[in-house]
Specification:
The chain is an alpha/beta fold and 144 residues long. 20% of the residues lie in helices and 25% in strands. The chain is built from 3 helices and 10 strands, in the order βαββαββαβββββ. A 3-stranded mixed β-sheet has the order 3-2-4. A 3-stranded mixed β-sheet has the order 6-7-9, with no helix packed on it. Strands 1-5 form a two-stranded antiparallel sheet. The longest helix has 12 residues. It is elongated and about 65 Å long. The two termini are 34 Å apart.
Length: 144
């Protein structure tokens, strides 16, 4: 089960291996900041013991559960507009797997086909230029 309140890059095979090796019906991903809304759940247990429980699962509902599974991948909890902006910047700077659907002209500079940039314009990463963008020679240093 996956909550939709964060952008998370994780290895599902690692979670399932961890979950199976502990023999418990409920496992939850954690990073250095705490629990994430990603769980491995045994279907039989969920359809019987967990029937009628609140989602997302809360600590204390089921004593000893969930088992905490540490992860080291990229996480952005998306709790504010600033964190959404950080996710976009991290994608443009290759800190996560989010990428624009265009060519990266140079590290952190993404330019859609059809965009026009004067050869004297200076673009400072991270920056994204859409297809109808025109950047003149007099443009200063602009970044996202």
């Amino acid at each position: 089960m996956i909550g939709l309140n964060a952008y998370i890059e994780w290895d599902i095979a690692e979670l399932l291996t961890f979950h199976r090796s502990h023999g418990m019906p409920l496992t939850q991903l954690h990073d250095t900041e705490g629990p994430l809304e990603v769980w491995a759940v045994e279907a039989e247990w969920f359809s019987t013991a967990a029937l009628g429980c609140a989602l997302p699962f809360r600590y204390g509902e089921f004593p000893g559960l969930p088992v905490s599974c540490p992860m080291e991948g990229y996480v952005n909890r998306l709790t504010s507009a600033q964190e959404l902006r950080n996710l976009v910047q991290d994608g443009f700077l290759s800190r996560c797997d989010v990428r624009p659907r265009c060519a990266e002209a140079r590290p952190g500079v993404w330019i859609e086909e059809g965009a026009r940039v004067h050869k004297e314009a200076r673009l400072v990463a991270p920056v994204y230029l859409g297809a109808s963008t025109k950047v003149n020679a007099s443009a200063g240093d602009y970044a996202l």
